[in-house]
Design brief:
- By secondary structure, the chain is mainly α.
- The chain has one domain.
- The chain has six helices and no strands.
- The chain has helices spanning 17-26, 29-64, 68-82, 89-93, 97-115, 121-132.
- It is globular, with a radius of gyration of 14 Å.
């Protein structure tokens, strides 16, 4: 196993739900803020319409492929980490508008990973792009250092 540019122990460029959940668990309050900024930036630049179109395509593909129960489980886990009474401290610290935007970014990224190759690459990238502001491994080709 190699270590990626951010120093994580996951194989380089591995885009998995396990990695996403592990990273959300350790995201700092400033990481939550970066995710919210990513949501603002990409919703504004590309429009919420493109995010919602990609979301709709992903949900349709997930249901068609009988991955609905898997998506429900991922949503429950994310909700437990970000919003429930047992939410992580960093998410509690950024509760409110910032936390909700970051949570939207996290849910869309998870949806993109669950849908995987069931949707087009650009649709998947549209879903993960906002959270890639905090977790650059989600789109390594777009987040290379200059």
């Amino acid at each position: 196993m190699s270590v990626d540019a951010e120093g994580y122990g996951f194989p380089e460029h591995q885009r998995t739900l396990a990695r996403l959940i592990d990273d959300i668990r350790i995201l700092s309050p400033s990481g939550v803020e970066r995710a919210a900024q990513g949501w603002d930036r990409h919703a504004r630049l590309h429009g919420l319409e493109s995010i919602h179109a990609a979301e709709k395509a992903a949900l349709h593909a997930i249901e068609k492929a009988d991955r609905g129960p898997a998506w429900d489980e991922v949503r429950r886990n994310l909700f437990g980490l970000t919003e429930s009474g047992g939410a992580l401290v960093s998410w509690k610290a950024e509760h409110g508008e910032i936390g909700h935007k970051a949570e939207d970014a996290a849910f869309m990224a998870a949806l993109g990973l669950v849908a995987g190759n069931l949707i087009g690459k650009e649709q998947a990238n549209t879903l993960v792009r906002p959270l890639s502001e905090a977790l650059p491994w989600l789109l390594p080709e777009e987040n290379q250092p200059a």
